[in-house]
Amino acid sequence: MDSDDRIERLESVITHLQKQVFDLDSVVVLQQRVIDSLQRDVKRLAINSQSMQDSLYERRSPEEERPPHY
């Protein structure tokens, strides 16, 4: 194997690796967008859940309570 063949082979490998790095970078960027979106959704759900729990456990005076037969 002469040096020209070896250089050509190395260039081919480098080109292939560069493409893989580019493809993986695109995947990482997409995954980060999905993670950011999911984090916003989870935060919103946690706030809504807490708000619902707070409203369920509000203390009411006996005058505000409806009798069971209503």
Could you characterize what this model shows?
The chain is mainly α and 70 residues long. Helix content is 77%, strand content 0%. It is built from 1 helix and no strands. It has one helix spanning 3-56.
Protein topology:
Layout: H1 3-56
Morphology:
rod-shaped
Q: Order of helices and strands, N to C?
A: H
Estimate percent helicity.
over 70%
Number of strands: 0
Output the number of helix runs: 1
Beta-strand percent range: under 5%
How far the N terminus sits from the C terminus, by CA atoms, comes to 94 Å
Task: Catalogue the unreliable spans.
Answer: none
Report the mean per-residue pLDDT as an integer: 89
Biggest sheet record: none
Alpha carbon gyration radius? 30 Å
> Which structural class do the helices and strands define?
mainly alpha
List keywords for this structure.
1 helix, 77% helix, 0% strand
Give me a quick take on this structure.
The protein is 77% helix and 0% strand.
